[in-house]
Amino acid sequence: MMIAPLFVPADRPDRFAKAAESGADAIIVDLEDAVPPARKDEARGNLGILQSLPVPAFVRVNAEGTLWHEDDLAALVRLNIGMVCVPKVESAGHLDALLSRLGAGARLLAQIETAAGVSQVQAIAGHRAVTQLAFGPADFFLDLGIGASAEMASHVLCILALASRTAGIAAPLDGPCFSVSDQDLLARECANAASAGAKGKLCIHPAQISGVFSHFLPSDEELDWARRVSEADRDGGVCLIDGRMIDAPIVARAKAMLETKARRRGVMPLRQAP
Questions:
Q1: What distance in Å separates the CA atoms of residue 199 and residue 164, rounded to the nearest whole number?
Q2: I need a labelling partner for 110 at 20 to 30 A (CA). Which of 36, 129, 203, 244 fits?
Q3: What is the pTM of this model?
């Protein structure tokens, strides 16, 4: 499960190592929106660097139906890159077509960015290669023909969270905060996303990473509570902690907090696709 992956433009190889050392738990090297059409070919030529980076590195390809999609896939196959961020996913069949090119071992971060994608999200989340979903708010609101809406974003994230849980994959990532220097806005967006079931947020600038982790990782106080609850769970019965009744679902939540912290420390590997 990723919490704070960082986008980096594929035509800026000088930033790859810096992005990998930024504290992000993964990077997404972007061939799509971050690269102008005249630089797409040059950007693909930089992908060979990725295998030497110390963090997981996904490549976001250009969407199916664009002029660059097939060339992107050919580059991934040639370089044996199987960690792919797929924009504007609208069906499981779309992902089957990708796997036929990339191989059965590919791991996909599926971006849900259209109404059609939301309508098919259960099948997308259940696809064997998908390890996590991510919301794409800018394209989604463009597709609907409306301005940005926190209420609508929360609604979509709820749908993505339920589909992810039903499919047994990691909870979804919220889309990025586009005001890179506004930490208050980032905090509000993280809080809204967390309340809708997201467990992380895409980052477009290194300055956002620590803020995302602070909202989606348990605090020191929460971890202390989780340890005490876990230690008090001797026989699976009901007990009291800080005057509050602790039963099996609360114990499970406490243990999940501890596992999330362990994963961030590198004790647990990034989840593999089944």
A1: 11
A2: 36
A3: 0.85
